Description:
The chain is an alpha+beta fold and about 400 residues long. The chain has ten helices and 17 strands.
Amino acid sequence: MKFSFSTAGESHGPGEVTLVHGVPAGLGLLAEDVDRDLARRQQGYGRGGRQKIETDRIEFLGGVRHGYTLGSPVAMLVRNKDYGNWESRMSPAPVEDPPEPITLPRPGHADLAGMQKYATDDLRNILERSSARETVARVAAGGVARKLLSEFGIRINSAVYRIGGAAMDKVEAARGAARSDESEVRCPDKEVSEAMKAEIDAARYARDALGGSFVVVAEGCPPGLGSYVDWRDKLDARLAAAVMSINAIKGVEVGIGFDVAKYRSSEVQDEILLDEENGGGLSRASNRLGGLEGGMTNGEPVVVSAAMKPISTIAKQLRTVDLAKGEAAMGFKERADSCAVPAAAVIGESMVAVVIAQAFLEKFGGDNMTDIRASYEAYMERIAKIVAETKN
Length: 392
């Protein structure tokens, strides 16, 4: 089966569940390989009270034995500690005293459209699943994908380059992505990090929230992942869809993205060079196209960036309509983050890891790690010979 994942669970339900399909047998996988990224997702300046309640850790429910994958689906559970405070309201079984339905849809959320689509008069049925809490399960899946890719030297990092009005150059942020964990806002520039924190403080004081932009960089990808043959195989399109699916993401770019519209062709294309310093292999003079040409990786780092709108759950009430009364009203307030961009960057890493792992296994796929390694090594050996044989 193709490498993929599905998730289940509600924000205040018993837990978040991830089921990862297509994981080859023989991959070394421990809980800490996944927990590392779950912890990173919970961090970040501006996070709200929920992160003080939860301590996200996975429990393997299937697919792993004695530290190695079996080739069967990998099932993981992250328990929601907050469920103890919501057990009656979120009980799977009927309760004697059901809570009053929530009928004040919040602007910017899935509330109103979801209530109309699923024919419910209680938006609790919508907001629990549409909540960004679901991304815990995505990060768990990304942890499996990341561990697979790391076996072949592929490393994925991210950096935040804008929060509100505080920003740094995106290209410089991408270059410094490997050290972004050192910053509370995942920004590799210390001065800009402090400016971002000041922006978040101001938004929190105003009972508001901020969005921003982040960049994900995948280094070590071999050329030829993805394909130009069919639109569904184009890797840049698949990456864009995966990152856009993250809550509150409103724009995705590859490489310099929309800036390609500013320049002439000769100023955009990444010229191909002979790298005499490394045995005469091939290299690029730049990476403006983000490591992707014709829907395929070209051997340069894959660079994907995204713009995140401010989260919709804020402490400031916004205008809405009470659907039960049919009259204008003010929306309800819930605890929330002042800024979730640093967490979104980690989720972005996970989604990029999943898509690249899919493409990697499509190219080198096998049922077990032994066969995959043999296929990968044979391919890389053939690629290395291309220039050498041409020169001779």
